[in-house]
Amino acid sequence: MSATVLIIDDDRELCALLAEFMLLEGFAASACHDGAAAVTHCRDHVYDVIVLDIMLPGLQGLEVLRSLRRFTTTPVLMLTARGEDTDRIVGLEMGADDYLPKPCNPRELAARLRAILRRSRAVSGDTRGSELVVGQTRLDTAGRSATFAGADLQLTSAEFNVLAALMADAGTVVDKESLCRRALGRPLAAYDRSVDVHISKLRRKIAALGGDNLIVSVRGSGYQFTVNSGDRTP
Fold this sequence. Notes:
Blueprint: E1 3-8, H1 12-24, E2 27-32, H2 35-44, E3 49-53, H3 61-68, E4 76-81, H4 85-93, E5 98-102, H5 106-121, E6 131-134, E7 137-140, E8 145-148, E9 151-152, H6 157-168, E10 173-175, H7 176-184, H8 194-207, E11 215-218, E12 222-225
Parallel strand pairs: 1-2, 1-3, 3-4, 4-5
Antiparallel strand pairs: 6-7, 7-8, 8-9, 10-12, 11-12
């Protein structure tokens, strides 16, 4: 069965070309050319993944993303202007799963989408079971949900993948290259801060529920999900 993708971009010619290419790659693609209309559309239609252009007329792409995250956890890949690091970081902070600079190679876009879907649908082989539990943090890898001290962490797909990779190797350091491959399904690019942003968001969400210092940075190495540290009982 084809995966469904919604392309939100005001460039109608580009959308048509991408939709045609996506069909050859096994995706059933639809398009919206207006940000506000796209948000309304997504309230009534469900897609496997969304491709969102940041530079939209009217309701800008980041505002579209903010609105989408109020009611859906559907993975979102942003299309950003080349070199616009600020937009990428803000987009990731607001809940995007990954980004690709424009103009993009359609083959790379398809590969990124497949990686996102593979990670959002499959239970990682690293988890070796349907549940991961470290202290008060619990991951249901089949249902793709996570809790701390019994409270839902409300993670995006990418955040869940990062946390699952860290918890699967709890107590040991996981380097950023491995995290990028395991969580985002792609190699770590130069100056790529995607993993760092997802880690930062995870820390804030866990800390808000009383879990401090569960994910620590190991300078020059990567990140570690600690065991028996900062895992307080309320």
